[in-house]
Automatic annotation (TrEMBL):
This is Uncharacterized protein.
């Protein structure tokens, strides 16, 4: 999260407001838009959707913009997209590996403190390895 404070001249304020009007609209998160491939194997693909929102606060002639970044994660498995919001989602998608995923998750929880993407990526590598060794 970053913060930008700017003082504007009133005559310029209206022009900037008109120019930025289209880019400040908030959209609901969905599968539409660019997805970044984070991990790819023959059986699993893991994607991230990077989203940035801008909030503006006007106080007198001062305008403050607050930039927020939020990521959404998706998993493609057996030609079905799954939204990944927590580690529990991975256990639901792979019920046969539920205990293994829970164990790996707990053992590496401190290693990936506050890094959801890192933990998801680690667990997906683990799941892909397990799926490949079980199918061999």
């Amino acid at each position: 999260m970053s913060l930008l404070k700017t003082k504007l001249i009133p005559s310029v304020f209206r022009i900037i407001g008109l120019l930025m009007q289209g880019s400040l609209k908030k959209t609901k998160d969905s599968f539409h838009g660019p997805l970044e491939v984070i991990f790819s194997s023959p059986s699993i693909k893991f994607y991230a959707k990077r989203k940035k929102t801008i909030d503006e606060k006007i106080k007198g002639i001062q305008i403050t913009y607050l930039f927020r970044e939020s990521d959404s994660y998706f998993l493609l498995y057996n030609n079905v997209f799954y939204a990944i919001d927590s580690r529990k989602d991975l256990r639901k998608i792979f019920p046969d590996l539920r205990k293994d995923i829970k164990k790996e998750s707990k053992e590496n929880e401190k290693k990936f403190n506050e890094d959801d993407e890192g933990l998801y990526l680690y667990l997906i590598h683990f799941i892909a390895f397990k799926l490949n060794t079980n199918n061999a």
